[in-house]
Design brief:
81% helix
Length: 117
Amino acid sequence: MLMNDQNRFSFLYAKSLLEGTPVDQLEESVAKKRISPSALEKRIRLEEENISLGEDVRSLKESYGTDMLNLTLLQAYLKRLLKNEKVANYLEKYHPVIHDKFSEVVQLDFLKISSTG
């Protein structure tokens, strides 16, 4: 499932997942092998990193919708702000860098960016 979630299907990634899987979750043929103390320590560290990575992925998935909504609302507000000629002229005259950045944000297509990024 983790490989599907991250769209990674390489041998090394699968091997690291196998090494990071708790012994009680493995099939008998893999679980019966003798494990050296250093390999056991490495496996424990990999299990912890695997759990941490899974939590990070879940957190990103949960916050993605809220982040996109906030960006869309910000973009709509900046469009409205720059449509006001007095505000746009003021920003362009006294704060050209800010005006340019606002204009860049207004031109962005967040759906296109999220599908390619």
